[in-house]
Design goal:
The complex is a heterodimer.
Chain A lengths: L3 E4 H11 L2 E6 L6 H9 L1 H5 L10 H13 L3 E7 H17 L5 E7 L13 H7 L3 E2 L4 H18 L3 E6 H4 L1 E5 L23 H24 L4 E3 L3 E9 L2 H8 L5 E6 L1 E2 L3 H10 L2 E5 L5 H7 L8 E2 L14 H7 L26 H12 L8 E2 L24 H11 L5 E6 H7 L1 H10 L3 E6 L18 H8 L6 E4 L6 H12 L5 E5 L4 H17 L1
Parallel strand pairs in A: 2-3, 3-4, 4-6, 5-6, 9-10, 9-12, 12-13, 14-15, 15-16, 16-18, 17-18
Antiparallel strand pairs in A: 1-7, 5-11, 8-10
Helix pairs in contact in A: 1-2, 1-7, 4-5, 5-6, 10-13, 14-19, 15-17
Chain B lengths: L9 H12 L10 E8 L4 H14 L3 E6 L9 E9 L13 E6 L2 H6 L4 E10 L12 H9 L4 E4 L1 H8 L5 H9 L7 H12 L4 H21 L1
Parallel strand pairs in B: 1-4, 4-5, 5-6
Antiparallel strand pairs in B: 1-3, 2-3
Helix pairs in contact in B: 1-2, 1-7, 5-6, 5-8, 6-8, 7-8
Classes of the chains: A alpha/beta, B alpha/beta.
Chain lengths: 535, 222
């Protein structure tokens, strides 16, 4: 079979499809989005009847995947690193319930924060849950590991984390495929109470999880994804995890150093001990936090010198690259020509023709009489309202935080307080916060800037499906204070007046400016034109 | 067997580029590291992914790292494209080692100068894409471009327009880059014929003209 040219994300998707997947659950988030998109576009997945719809948020995705596992089938759940925070309750408890069908949790971390608000390292979560991690170094491994991860999960009776970083998620290379495995048939867990985490049952399950730890170590030691190769220089031994191995091999030839290529966790005790005994010092290369380094170094740091992010051999933050690794090895790096001063920053910006623009222009005007510092925004394209020329928002913390932060600030006396949130983020985790505000009739003005899509990640479906008004009414917002608006220049005056009126209202108002995302609009028009041409 | 990821219209664009370059890429039998630079929406990811698909098809190794997400909203975007007849380790081109920076925008090419090798080439369009308030004077940018020992600076938009299609500026840039990525030129022309054949002889001729004009410019100014 010929090779496919796949992004790391796509390799994972194809590996899952070929590995007997029955359903993928996800909420869009850079750099993980392309996994679900690939499965959605795959004819093979359609023929196999694989479930492939977006979930409302990462928690619902995780729970649906646990449900599919309960029913005996193989499930993949995908999100970005901060998405795991949302899904954490379900995720951690899934390691206590164990699995029935194989359950793989894909976390795409974003060191250097290319498209994120932090660079947290998902490997800590896996350690917390006491489950194995597979961390591919390249696209082929991404495919191979996903392909075999379901079996590993079923064998160990735990979810398996698949951890990648942005660079692998969004880099293409050739990938060879394996035979397509059949999906599991539906079968209930042999113990009908396996998933009932009453304390008495949870204690038993937890002991089982603890007792499985030695087997996880053994499987990591025996894993073909972990290899210890001996080198001629035994002064320095190197542990390179995941994609860090590529940056290492860009700089050295095989046999130069003793190297532990680490791609399956728990950290394999046997190989680490062997490398440690053989070498005078160790260098740890890992993309993300220094988790391996901390573990090997230990709190007292009484052993041989361990180099890495903690002692400054490697920068403490940001993603790795070949030059950083070269410097860590003491190699000379040609720095290239400097970037001339004439080069200016080109930050991303709201598209021309985007409805969020008109919302901010109107909001800035409506708020003039109250002064600045009272707009709590959220995660999405509209976060770009923080930049010039709008300078319109004062917060962006986590999904859904706009409404609840506005409520808290109003509780403290900041009235009016304004929340700006998109339709997809609202259904992700804004609705429950709105309920809090309704229950206390908090004096906040919530603007749900509705472009009918999940815009920032490229236009995925949005779980409201046009029902924002009904949802707000259902939550209990007074219909007299729900206004659908048209964020176009010609309605600017009218929109400012509505905003002013509701800003002065001492209760919950919801303003819903509705205009289709300019990107999805353009795509839709193009598709319509094309299909018209065919007829 | 190939899958084309067409969840966005970019997918079709990728296939176009693959058809264009697919049969010609065999002649690359060395290690070529290219940084493609531009602004989100200018189509550099399509060029990069198209070349990459073709390389895999012909049995070469490639790695091609690109930027998705936030930056695509009008921010600076770049793609690291590595093609080799041997396995490639890093997805990123090491600092100071790129053979070529191919930039469809003048300021953006300069942004990646730390990646250019001592004898590497900068091939850049000089038509600015101005979507920021502090965009520098074009002359100041050109002055910096001229400081680079190996550079080709061309007005791809004007050349494309002269050739008869202002939409062909990326074809002009491909032509301008062609002397540096070792692609047999007559095969590139075949690619253009194949690619635009469906749209009629006139479109083919316009794009051939754009491709040749880009190449001629590079050869004259090399």
């Amino acid at each position: 079979m010929d090779k496919l040219l796949l992004l790391g994300d796509e390799a994972i998707a194809q590996g899952a499809i070929d590995g007997g997947l029955s359903g993928v659950y996800a909420y869009p988030g850079t750099p993980s989005t392309e996994i679900m998109e690939y499965v959605q576009a795959s004819k093979q997945a359609a023929e196999l009847g694989i479930h492939r719809e977006w979930s409302a948020n990462e928690k619902t995705a995780m729970e649906s995947a646990i449900g599919m596992s309960y029913a005996g089938k193989r499930a993949l759940v995908c999100f970005k690193h901060v998405g795991l925070n949302v899904a954490a309750d379900a995720f951690i408890n899934a390691s206590i319930t164990g699995v029935n069908g194989g359950l793989v949790v894909l976390c795409a971390d974003d060191p250097s924060m290319h498209s994120s608000q932090n660079e947290q390292d998902s490997r800590f979560y896996a350690k917390f849950a006491m489950i194995p991690i597979l961390e591919p170094s390249n696209q082929q491994e991404a495919y191979d590991m996903t392909y075999s991860a379901f079996e590993l999960s079923e064998r160990l009776n735990v979810p398996v984390m698949l951890r990648i970083t942005t660079r692998l998620a969004h880099s293409r290379s050739g990938v060879g495929r394996k035979e397509v495995k059949a999906q599991n048939g539906m079968r209930l867990p042999s113990d009908p109470r396996q998933f009932v985490l009453l304390p008495a049952i949870a204690r038993v399950n937890y002991k089982k999880l603890l007792n499985t730890q030695p087997l996880m170590d053994t499987l990591a030691e025996e894993s073909k994804f972990n290899t210890l190769s001996k080198g001629k220089n035994n002064k320095l031994g190197i542990i390179a995890a995941g994609i860090a191995y590529n940056y290492l091999m860009e700089n050295i030839a095989e046999g130069d150093y003793s190297v532990l290529k680490l791609s399956q966790y728990p950290i394999p005790p046997k190989q680490v001990r062997e490398l440690y005994e053989q070498c005078d010092e160790l260098l740890i290369l890992e993309d993300g936090y220094p988790i391996i380094e901390e573990m090997i170094k230990g709190f007292l740091n009484l052993g041989k010198p361990i180099h890495g992010r903690l002692d400054g051999t490697v920068p403490r933050d940001g993603e790795l690259n070949p030059a950083i690794v070269a410097k860590a090895l003491g190699l000379e790096v040609y720095e290239g020509m400097p970037i001339p001063e004439v080069v200016k920053k080109r930050p991303p910006s709201l598209c021309l023709g985007c409805g969020h623009r008109d919302v901010y222009i109107a909001l800035n005007e409506a708020l003039e009489e109250y002064g600045t510092g009272r707009v709590f925004a959220d995660i999405g394209c509209y976060t770009l309202g923080a930049l010039a020329p709008f300078n319109a928002i004062n917060s962006c913390v986590d999904m859904g935080a706009s409404i609840t932060m506005a409520k808290g600030a109003a509780d403290a006396g900041l009235v009016p307080a304004v929340a700006v949130i998109g339709d997809s983020t609202f259904t992700h985790s804004g609705m429950t916060g709105l309920l809090d505000a309704v229950n206390e009739n908090s004096p906040i003005t919530v603007i749900i800037s509705d472009n009918s899509t999940t815009g920032m990640t490229g236009g995925q479906t949005s779980s409201a499906f046009g029902r924002i008004v009904e949802i707000c009414k259902g939550i209990g917002v007074d219909p007299e204070h729900i206004h659908v608006m048209n964020p176009l220049k010609k309605f600017h005056e009218e929109n400012v007046q509505i905003m002013k009126k509701e800003l002065s209202y001492q209760g919950v108002s919801v303003l819903i400016p509705q205009r289709e995302c300019i990107q999805t609009f353009a795509r839709r028009k193009k598709a319509e034109k094309k299909s018209a041409g065919k007829n | 067997m190939y899958t084309n990821i067409c969840t966005q219209e970019e997918g079709r664009e990728k296939i176009r580029w693959q058809k264009l370059i697919g049969s010609q890429i065999k002649s690359i039998n060395m290690k070529t590291d290219i940084i493609l630079a531009g602004v989100g929406g200018q189509g550099i990811l399509s060029i990069a992914a198209g070349i990459g698909l073709a390389a895999v098809k012909t049995g070469l190794y490639i790695k091609q790292a690109e930027v998705h997400g936030m930056s695509q909203r009008g921010g600076d975007v770049q793609s690291h494209l590595r093609i080799s007849d041997k396995p490639i380790s890093s997805d990123l081109i090491p600092q100071g080692k790129a053979h070529l920076i191919l930039s469809v925008e003048p300021m953006e090419g300069l942004r990646y100068l730390p990646f250019l090798s001592k004898d590497g080439w900068l091939v850049t369009n000089i038509t600015p894409f101005n979507n920021i308030t502090d965009y520098p004077e074009v002359d100041a940018i050109l002055k910096e471009i001229k400081k680079i020992p190996n550079h080709i600076a061309l007005d791809a938009d004007a050349i494309a327009k002269e050739a008869g299609s202002s939409r062909s500026s990326n074809i002009v840039m491909l032509g301008a880059a062609s002397p540096f990525i070792d692609i047999e030129f007559d095969k590139l022309e075949d690619g253009i014929r194949q690619l635009f054949g469906r749209k009629g002889e006139e479109v083919v001729e316009v794009n051939l003209k754009a491709l040749r004009a880009g190449r001629e410019f590079s050869q004259k100014n090399r």
